[in-house]
Automatic annotation (TrEMBL):
This is glycerophosphodiester phosphodiesterase. Transmembrane segments: none annotated. It catalyses: a sn-glycero-3-phosphodiester + H2O = an alcohol + sn-glycerol 3-phosphate + H(+). Keywords: Glycerol metabolism, Hydrolase. The keyword Hydrolase applies.
Length: 253
């Protein structure tokens, strides 16, 4: 049975994930400039002051600065307005079904139902070339929280960043590491990100347990699925096409 991930960014949302061993919380991590892993999807956080929209990179904020955005835990205290940028680059209000304070990875471990596993996506900016020392520093900060607070939870690590995938595997052997790829649906300067073949190579060279591919990438090159299976590498998919029955039928022709 495949492990399903549900992406969330606050504690109440984390706790609403179905209580089943086939589900895991998909938490996307950044690390603040004072070394605290926080749950947030985007590279930048957007806000507005006196009618002027501004953005700040999450990794350049301290933890206290990060937590000052959005709803606050202290009754009667207002946080900075949260905005977001749509795919067509429009700036809109941050609207969610349940508006709760931003949180850290440690808080998630301490407050979310202990039977729920975490799929921890290690998020890095697609447009930055990171050096090994920086990656190692960030990953060690994340691993410290995981080893201190995960306890018996099911944990898997995943990332689109090939060097981060390699490093997190070298830094620990307790939890499986999956390499994320869009399978060539979008092209990057780093060739390792541009096909399922390259993703397989990353896994084999670094001892990773699996690949998580955009489903369209699998349909672009179904032949590589056999190679992945023969290599005993797990293959999971994401993307809207995986919910279309005809696509599943095509996959097994």
């Amino acid at each position: 049975m495949a492990l399903k991930a549900v992406h969330v960014s606050d504690i109440p949302a984390l706790d609403t994930v179905p209580k089943s061993p086939c589900f895991s919380n998909g938490v996307q991590l950044k690390v603040t400039n004072d070394d605290c892993p926080v749950i947030f999807h985007d590279d930048f956080i957007l806000s507005q002051q006196n009618g002027v929209v501004f953005e700040k990179r999450i990794t350049e904020l301290s933890l206290s600065e990060f937590l000052s955005y959005g709803p606050q835990r202290e009754v009667g205290k207002d946080g900075k307005v949260l905005l977001r940028k749509t795919k067509d680059r429009k700036i809109v209000q941050w609207e969610v079904e349940q508006d709760d304070p931003l949180c850290t990875l440690e808080e998630a471990f301490l407050n979310v139902e202990s039977s729920l596993g975490f799929n921890i996506e290690l998020k890095f900016d697609d447009h930055i070339v990171y050096d090994q020392d920086y990656l190692a520093h960030v990953l060690k900060a994340i691993l410290k929280v995981v080893f201190d607070h995960a306890k018996d939870r099911t944990i898997i690590f995943s990332t689109f960043q090939p060097d981060a995938a390699s490093l997190v595997k070298k830094l620990q052997s307790t939890y499986p590491v999956f390499f994320l790829t869009n399978g060539g649906c979008e092209i990057f300067e780093d060739e390792r990100r541009n096909s399922l073949e390259e993703a397989l190579k990353v896994c084999l060279e670094n001892g990773l347990q699996g690949i998580v591919s955009e489903i369209k990438g699998v349909f672009r090159n179904p032949g590589v699925v056999t190679k992945i299976k023969e290599s005993e590498i797990s293959l999971l998919t994401y993307g809207s096409l995986k919910y279309v029955l005809s696509c599943h039928m095509q996959c097994f022709k």
